[in-house]
Amino acid sequence: MTQQTDSRRDHRPSALSLASSGVPVLPLRAGKVPFGNCPACAKNACGGRPNMKVPGPCACPRPCHGWAAATTEPGVIGSLAWARAWREAAGVAYHPGGAGVTVVDLDNAEAIAWARATLPATRTVPTTRGEHWIYRGAMPSANAVRSGVDVKSLMAYARWLGPGVGAMAVLPDTVRALTVTEPSSARRAPQTLSVPLGGQRETCPHRTPTYLDRGIAMAEQRITGAREAVHATVYRTFLAVLSTHGRCGCLTEAHTARLFTAAQAKGETARHCMDAWTNALTTLGLSHV
Fold it and tell me: Within 10 Å of residue 30's Cβ, how many Cβ atoms?
């Protein structure tokens, strides 16, 4: 069930209910934007850092500083200082990272299809244009990690649209990998291609080879479909593949070669492919293999 956007509605009861369960909340204006800084805090006069990414030592009682205004304090939410904001509010927003969760914001049907094929099932909430997939665990936020997909967690806000349906799963490495950018100075990697993870001893979670083959095919498509930031796309794709299939020994030289071939077809060199693969292994703690 989605939240109404009628600005005449009193959203404080919903906000107080969320706050009582440990979810930091703030009022949201029409257009899904937070309330701006009050005159005393204009241009970060209160000490807030540029772009209000982190609030400064500000004692302003009003709902300033975007996501950083989110609170679980009922005395603040129901205070006179916040009364006008609630009267003008079109909805309730919350700070996912402050609640210990991550929202994967899927903005269209294509993004939803990608999530259903790639990510583990979790709690979902319908939105105006797509869905929010909510995972247990916090991480850095990032916009446009792929077409139609934003990640909202730490230092971000999301609109509250209801509790959603389904059991909340633990935040997977596949989502964490979406916001990781490749190190700018990649170290020289070996120029020979070997079976990368065959020595792992963990139990294989894949019931059939089809699951792995489908994952590799999707990774090839993601690389092939990249229209910009090809370097970053290749690295993120390698990271996603390794985070899902890298600990059970299923990946073979043939699988890796398919990924490298797709990357080189987009103009990447063999050297860059090896460096990106090595960096992904290092990020996931698999570089000893």
Answer: 11
Contact 156, 96 (CB under 8 A): yes
Beta bridge partners of 91: 28
| Kind plus residue range of the DSSP H or E element containing 150 | strand 149-152
Which of 9-18, 237-246, 258-267 has the largest mean confidence? 9-18
How sure is the predictor about 190, in pLDDT bands with cuts at 50, 70 and 90?
very low
Which pair of structure tokens corresponds to residue 206?
A: 């894949």
- φ and ψ of 208, to 5 deg: -140, 160
The model's pTM is: 0.63
Strands (E), 11-115: 25-29, 33-34, 91-94, 101-106
| Distance from C-alpha of 284 to C-alpha of 72, rounded to nearest angstrom | 35
Distance CA 137, CA 99 (A): 9
Name 59's Cβ contacts closer than 8 Å, sequence gap at least 6. Answer: 46
- Name the DSSP class of 54: S
Distance between CA 263 and CA 250 in Å, rounded? Answer: 21
Report how far residue 23's alpha carbon sits from residue 209's, in angstroms, rounded to the nearest whole number.
41
Q: What tens digit of pLDDT does each residue of 15-34 get?
A: 999 999 999 999 999 888 88
> What SS3 state is found at 155?
strand
- Report yes or no: 216 and 150 within 8 Å, Cβ to Cβ: no
Please list, in sequence order, all residues whose beta carbon lies within 8 angstroms of the beta carbon of residue 288, skipping any fewer than 6 positions away.
none
Helix (H) / strand (E) element for 145: namely strand 142-146
The amino acid present at 89, given as its one-letter code, is A
Q: What is the DSSP string of 125-144?
A: EE-SSSEEEEEES--B-EEE
